[in-house]
Specification:
alpha+beta; AttH-like fold; 7 helices; 23 strands; about 50% strand
Length: about 475
């Protein structure tokens, strides 16, 4: 009876019935979609590839999330550069302490091969920091034995000063024997408003089997504006470098690093006499920039700044006339690589509120026009790196100064430099035809980072090449 009435109603009220059926169909379709989305979200939350079950997943910019989750070809070789630095500073550092309770690094589902008794087996393996995993509530259930942080685990998430500086500042064994290989410690020390020192400990050549050696180069910019240069060299028998730490010996000239404090000792000869120094350099906390390497293959170029902002104390003597330095402003970086027809743009500044660092290289005769954004600019405050921006060119109007504009998304900074002193070095390389400029100048920095206005000024050192 009811079925008969329903069919008669459909025949008598055709438009009304069609409208009701359409509404019912749309409602049912929406419900099916919502249930499907909910089921997909539930399955993804239980996916072994999404470890930890956190509320927020942070990925490198430009990563295809689906490729990462499914492990397709697009995500096959995914890696996070400088993952230790990301864990300690960018995510788990003091800057985000109010919003990030714990940074928990995890390796999940890594393909490795085990070989035993002549047989090789492919397995999936993972790795975690036990204390961090337990703090996040995802620690492993251990039925027998122990599961605790090893020394390597502790060094990964919270290294001592010795471990940190050994990790970021050490020498490298060249992968090929190349006469243009060079690696050096560079320091600059400001002894007064118009007096400073450039100090470079260099090893280079066809290491280890060819012709190579070490050299100490000193440049003293005197208060009256004149310059003195000194140098001292040693062959391979008297030159030693450490691939596990910053220690270096070139004859009687040495660099030693203990618990993040650098001890420098040197003696070199110049046209005006002999220069000697003994200095201790203390980097300020969080004032470093992590190692990076570009180029790769047989022509890498590497760079790290262990001490963007530091203080140096000790004694410097020239021809028997000595002066004492107490907490003098100082800087230290470390470079390595094959330097065949390589030039660079570089600068560092020490402001009242923050420090800045910019740079980039030209290799094999390339120019700024060949790459849209070849350079970076980093702003560093008391909590570490605040932002890293990119820029494509520097507007030089030498000898007076230069300016640049760096951007990252909606953030932008304008750097203006007024050059106060320039030291010129003509390249001795045949066919190179460049003049190396080392400049000292006053800078001003203006712009915006997020919701914060940036305004700072100070002094810095800057380098470039001109024809």
């Amino acid at each position: 009876m009811l079925l008969t009435l329903a069919f008669r109603h459909l025949l008598v009220r055709k438009r009304r019935a069609a409208f009701l059926l359409l509404g019912y169909g749309i409602g049912a379709g929406v419900m099916i979609v919502l249930l499907s989305v909910g089921e997909a979200m539930l399955r993804q939350s239980q996916d072994v590839s999404l470890v930890g079950g956190g509320e927020v997943t942070i990925l490198p910019q430009g990563i295809d999330i689906e490729a990462l989750r499914t492990g397709s070809l697009g995500g096959l070789f995914l890696g996070i550069d400088r993952a230790r630095y990301t864990t300690r500073e960018l995510i788990g550092g003091r800057r985000h302490a109010a919003g990030v309770a714990m940074a928990v690094p995890v390796i999940e589902g890594k393909l490795i091969y085990l070989e035993a008794h002549g047989r090789q087996v492919a397995v999936r393996a993972g790795g975690e920091i036990p204390s961090r995993a337990r703090a996040a509530g995802v620690g492993l259930r251990v039925n027998r034995g122990f599961w605790y942080d090893s020394e390597a685990d502790s060094a990964y998430v919270q290294p001592t000063s010795q471990q940190l500086y050994d990790e970021i500042d050490h020498f490298h064994q060249p992968t090929v024997s190349d006469s243009t290989w060079g690696e050096w410690h560079y320091f600059n020390v400001v002894a007064g408003p118009k007096e400073w020192w450039y100090i470079s400990y260099i090893v280079g050549g066809a290491i280890p089997s060819g012709r190579w050696g070490g050299q100490l180069l000193l440049t003293h910019h005197r208060p009256d504006g004149t310059r003195e240069r000194f140098q001292s060299g040693a062959g391979p028998d008297a030159s030693r470098f450490d691939t596990a730490r910053a220690d270096l010996t070139i004859g009687t000239n040495t660099v030693r690093q203990v618990q993040g404090v650098y001890s420098l000792k040197g003696k070199a000869t110049g046209p005006t006499g002999v220069a000697e120094f003994e200095l201790r350099l203390h980097p300020e906390a969080n004032q470093f920039f992590p190692p990076l390497e570009v180029g790769g293959g047989d022509t890498p170029s590497g760079y790290v700044v262990p001490a963007l902002r530091a203080e140096a104390s000790g004694r410097v003597c020239v021809s028997g006339r000595c002066s004492n330095l107490v907490n003098a402003p100082a800087y230290h970086d470390h470079n390595w690589g094959v330097w065949r027809a390589v030039t660079w743009e570089w600068g560092m500044g020490r402001g009242t509120r923050s420090s800045l660092l910019y740079g980039g290289i030209y290799s094999g005769g390339s120019s700024a026009s060949s790459t849209a954004i070849p350079f970076f600019l980093s702003l560093v405050d008391s909590l570490g790196v605040q932002q890293v921006m990119r820029f494509g060119r520097i507007n030089y109007h030498l000898p007076d100064g230069f300016d640049l504009v760096a951007r990252h998304d909606t953030d932008s900074l304008v750097l203006r430099v007024r050059v106060l002193d320039t030291q010129k070095t003509v390249s001795q390389t045949a066919g190179f035809g460049r003049v190396f400029l080392q400049m000292r100048g006053a800078f001003s920095l203006r712009g915006r980072l997020g919701a914060q206005e940036v305004s700072d000024s100070g002094m810095g050192f800057f380098e470039t090449y001109v024809r």
